[in-house]
Amino acid sequence: MVEIKNIKSMAIRFDISNGLSPDRDSKKRMLSDMDGMYLDNIALKEMISKQDILVYEFYELGIPEEPGHIAFGTTILYPGKVGNEFFMTKGHFHSIQETAEIYYCLKGHGFIVMENPNGITEMQEMNPGVSVYVPPRYAHRSINVSKKEPLISFFAFRADAGHDYKTIETKGFRKLLVEYDGKPKLIDNPKWKL
Ligand code: NI
């Protein structure tokens, strides 16, 4: 039997209108935290030199990182573009790759792009009320395609899964979501390396 930490029950508020919690501090990712993540890094540097704005924020609630626990929280991804590429989260594999994740969209319009180590890409559209299942072994990233609204989602995953950001920071995703003729289009990432 697996020994797990017993913790007390808890209730945390997330405001439906902006995804934020009045009870906890969020983790914030600024444009300057996204160095090298976008195709057009020169456009990124130019934006940062003008104003280093918030790209997304999310919650880590300190749930014990053990298999019987479930980590959860919200992600708030703000609207914007770097060059013609939509604002997105860095994306990650789980350190324990055989662990899934669930997202539930509360507000906004976007996509979750997923890819597994065999090169299979999956994409699901996010609108309020849509729940997306990210299967085990898939790296996942949220992308906001709205011009004015944040993309707000609630997530839950096995608490010991861990985050492998390094693989994506080093290699990128195979596919990128860019604006083309005023519409989102999934393209091959010219910078992707094996
Ligand atoms: Ni995840």
Descriptive overview:
- The protein has 194 residues and is mainly beta.
- It has a single domain (27-188), classed as Jelly Rolls (Sandwich).
- It has helices spanning 41-50, 166-171, and strands spanning 27-30, 54-58, 70-77, 81-82, 85-86, 93-94, 101-107, 110-115, 121-126, 131-134, 139-144, 151-158, 163-164, 175-180, 183-188.
- The strands form 5 sheets. It has a 6-stranded antiparallel beta sheet with strand order 1-2-3-12-7-10, with no helix packed on it.
- Strand 4 (81-82) and strand 5 form a beta hairpin.
- The N and C termini lie far apart (40 Å).
- Bound molecules: nickel (II) ion.
- Residues 92, 94, 101, 140, 157 line the site of nickel (II) ion.
